[in-house]
Amino acid sequence: MRNNPKIKSLAALKKTVQVLRGKKKRIVFTNGCFDLLHRGHIQYLKKARSLGNALIIGLNSDASVRRLKGSDRPATKQADRAEILAGLEFVDYITIFNQDTPLKLIKQIKPDVLVKGADWKKSRVVGKDIVEAYGGRVELIKYLKGYSTTGLLKNISNA
């Protein structure tokens, strides 16, 4: 995992973001578990990337996924999830975080565009106030109906 140049520690990512900002690149940030990557994730991430020049994903660690989703998750380990995401051409960088929310990442990366799924109310998006305070914006992207990791796991267990 550490050999993949797209997967970075927060310290390394902050240096990369400085370089991108020096080149006047628009930084887009989203976060999530991305446990079993599916068509809905692909559509969402492509749309997120289209909003700027570099897409950064804050990937929930295995421990944070367990706290958020339950003891039977994640179905896929964080190193594998990160490598799969890194294989997507429209994903520029991934950093793994252990907190329940990406607030620390947002404060340190300071994305120009913060992206979440449209199932969120904009007022409840973690980091919204911070991003908007320095002139960034929050974008909500509609999910592709019928696609979810929870749904996939149910289908697998029922098969």
Any chance you could write out the topology, listing elements then pairs?
Blueprint: H1 10-22, E1 27-32, H2 39-49, E2 54-60, H3 62-69, H4 78-86, E3 93-97, H5 103-109, E4 113-117, H6 128-133, E5 137-141, H7 149-158
Parallel strand pairs: 1-2, 1-4, 2-3, 4-5
How would you portray this structure in words?
- The protein has 159 residues and is of the alpha/beta class.
- It has a single domain (10-158), classed as HUPs (Rossmann fold, 3-Layer(aba) Sandwich).
- The chain contains 7 helices and 5 strands, in the order H-E-H-E-H-H-E-H-E-H-E-H.
- It has helices at 10-22, 39-49, 62-69, 78-86, 103-109, 128-133, 149-158, and strands spanning 27-32, 54-60, 93-97, 113-117, 137-141.
- Strands 3-2-1-4-5 form a 5-stranded parallel β-sheet.
- It is globular.
- It starts with 9 loop residues before the first helix and ends with a helix.
- The model has no long low-confidence stretch (mean pLDDT 90).
How is this structure best summarized?
This protein is of the alpha/beta class and 159 residues long. 40% of the residues lie in helices and 18% in strands. It has one domain: Rossmann fold (3-Layer(aba) Sandwich), CATH 3.40.50.
Helices, by number, come to 7
The end-to-end distance, rounded to whole angstroms, is: 32 Å
What is the molecular shape? Answer: globular
User: Approximately what portion of the residues adopt beta-strand conformation?
Assistant: 15-25%
Q: Sketch the major β-sheet.
A: 5 strands, parallel
